[in-house]
Design brief:
about 15% strand; binds NADP nicotinamide-adenine-dinucleotide phosphate; globular; two-stranded antiparallel ribbon; 12 strands; 14 helices; about 40% helix; alpha/beta; single chain; TIM Barrel; eight-stranded parallel beta barrel; about 375 residues
């Protein structure tokens, strides 16, 4: 697992090549503020090879955060991360490995009949009750997450996942009430606290697409304070003093800045609603920004007014630096499966991010 000694040692090895705040505190140690994501791409051998090469090169050049999920590319992304971890000349203790459970994963390729696959592999196999399913493809029931975590550990070839995210829990709002989703999250957190106690996860988080950046009243809204309260309740039930909730993951980029601009979460001590980023910062929760390039779009061009404020030699670097400049963001994830993109994305971290005032000014 990522350790204090391992990750600080990694920073000592690479830190001089980067700007001052490139490495940031995360979990027991430090994490690079540029991380590598593994979501996009077809589930093919050719793409696996490219991901393996990108991940290994990134790990050997200053990126020590790798993000994946069991369902990404039919479990191939997790397996590519595992191969790259073994291949790269880095120690396991130097790297923050994050994965997610929630979406029912295919295995290697998309089956011809996904509904039959889900029935045979999950329902008939006793991994899941049909009432736990949302949209025929998503569940966060504790026994199901347990089984998915076991499979992720095996795919990744690691003993511990440093941050295990409950993946897009807002999907459950299609199947049950908001209160029932909070209850389901609390049950999931309890199980993850138990897995943390035996060292299978270093901590856990919630990865979202809409939940924390939409206004109150939106169908996909989940309250971050309520999620934090449920994690605290789970820790109390399990009898641990420190709460294992480490991080939230949400999309954040020049084109999707709602996590900074939409006030939808009650501040922990003040009578006002604040953004997801401000709330997370106030309670000491790390934020990992996904889709830093808006799934590639921003690598072509960034809105001019913002672009002028950002540092970096290329639009992709400037877009990455926007995401890693946001107050409260620990790491900006960039999906990278083209080896030519790795040095460019790594080098984004050699530029100073915007200061808090300059970041605010972008929105004025
Ligand atoms: N709900 C969730 O939990 C959630 C949702 C979305 C994303 N995520 C996580 O966040 C990560 C990042 O998001 P994302 O992958 O969706 O989108 P992204 O990082 O915004 O964009 C990835 C795309 O940008 C391209 N790209 C990367 N570097 C580039 C460069 N220097 N120049 C030009 N193009 C470049 C990639 O191409 P190549 O592949 O060819 O390099 C890929 O097509 C994901 O991989 C995943 O780990 C989580």
């Amino acid at each position: 697992m990522a350790t204090s000694q391992g990750t600080w040692g990694y920073r000592d090895r690479f830190g001089d090549a980067f700007a001052r705040t490139y490495f940031r505190r995360f979990g027991p140690g430090v994490a690079s503020s540029v991380g590598l994501g593994t979501y996009l791409g077809e589930p093919t051998d050719e793409r696996d090879d490219r991901y393996r090469e990108c991940i290994a090169e990134a790990l050997e050049s200053g990126i020590n955060v790798v993000d994946t999920a069991i369902n990404y590319r039919c479990q191939r992304s997790e397996r590519a991360v595992g191969d790259a971890l073994r291949r790269a000349s880095v120690d396991r203790e130097e790297v923050v490995v994050a994965t997610k459970g929630g979406f029912l994963p295919f295995d290697g390729s998309r089956p011809e009949d996904p509904a039959a696959y889900v029935r045979e592999q999950f329902l008939d196999a006793g991994l899941l009750d049909s009432e736990d399913l949302a949209r025929g493809s998503h569940a966060i029931a504790p026994d199901f997450l347990d089984a998915m975590l076991d499979r992720s550990l095996s795919n990744l070839g690691v003993d511990t996942v440093d941050c295990y995210y409950v993946h897009n829990p807002e999907t459950q709002l299609h199947a049950r009430s908001r209160e029932a989703v909070y209850d389901a999250l609390e049950a999931a957190f309890e199980r993850l606290e138990r897995r943390r106690a035996v060292g299978d996860v270093g901590g856990y988080g919630v990865a979202t697409w809409e939940a924390f950046r939409v206004p109150r009243g939106h169908d996909a809204y989940l309250s971050l304070p309520e999620v934090v309260a449920r994690a605290e309740a789970a820790a109390e039930t399990v009898g641990v003093d420190d709460v294992g909730l480490l991080a939230v993951q949400l999309p954040f980029n020049v084109a999707m800045a709602d996590a900074f601009t939409v006030s939808a979460h009650r501040h922990p001590t003040e009578e006002r609603d604040v953004s997801a980023l401000e709330y997370a910062q106030a309670v000491g929760l790390d934020v990992v920004a996904s889709a830093a390039l808006a799934q590639g779009e921003l690598a072509a061009s960034i809105p001019e007014a913002v672009d002028a404020e950002l540092r970096g030699d290329t639009p992709a670097q400037r877009a990455i630096n926007f995401a890693r400049s946001a107050p409260g963001v620990t790491t900006a994830l960039v999906g990278t499966s083209s080896p030519a993109h790795v040095p460019e994305n790594v080098a984004a971290g050699t530029f100073e991010p915007l200061g808090a005032r300059a970041f605010d000014a972008v929105f004025e």
